[in-house]
Amino acid sequence: MTSIAQSTALVANNLPVPSALGSLDAYIGAVHQIPVLSVENEQALARRFREGEDLDAARELVHSHLRFVVHVARGYNGYGLQIGDLIQEGNIGLMKAVKRFDPDQGVRLVSFAVHWIRAEMHEFILKNWRIVKVATTKAQRKLFFNLRKSKTRLGWMNAEEVRLVAKDLNVSEREVLEMESRLSGRDIGFDAPSDEDDDHAPPSPAAYLRASDEDPSQSYEREDEEDNQLGLLREGLAGLDARSRDIIKRRWLDADSKITLQELADEYGVSAERIRQIEANALKKMRGLFVA
Which residues mediate DNA binding here (predicted)? Predict the structure, then answer.
């Protein structure tokens, strides 16, 4: 039996990554072009991989869910980490989920995989949470390396000491106080201690990780449907002549102010009834795309 490490490595060989495509936007655009699998196709591919170790089937399962990894990664934007890094960690979780997915359990892969994807992202966040940029400018680096030896005693500096250190190192008093606060601080565990039994203790930082109560498959399907509808709307507008497109945009898509038929009629030098006919024909033509 192929190991998880071997399977993920083989599948990853053809996995698109942001760096290879030049930018994160290009990567996201590329993965959104990959078709979403139907239930039947997903189960067929999962059985091919589960029963015959078909890596091509596994690769197709992974590729078809890369857009969902992007969706999950966007939920962790507030942690100061690059979303591209989170996506790549999530992709590892996705590949592990594909390895373990059982199509006979009656759930979609997206519902099963979300736990593996988030687990990899959480681990990445935990590893990087304590990386603090202590000194980012030349003045701050000088302050960082000289502050301790500039202090005359242990403990917090008084106002006069702060003034003297700031003058000696040619920085502001505010920067001295901020740097001392950083150097005097201590790491706070991301997770609560395992022996924590104090009901009144403040929650650990891990408690603030974003989690959605909505079923991931429903969220994914809803957003995918919204993307699809938006794409159809753009396609429909592109198929109209310039006047019809302008009328539809200004009558239905302008959120600021909806123009009247008479105002458009005056602008185009025709009757309001003629504008209504053009609008009705354009809507009928576009409606055909949505019900096809």
Answer: 261-280
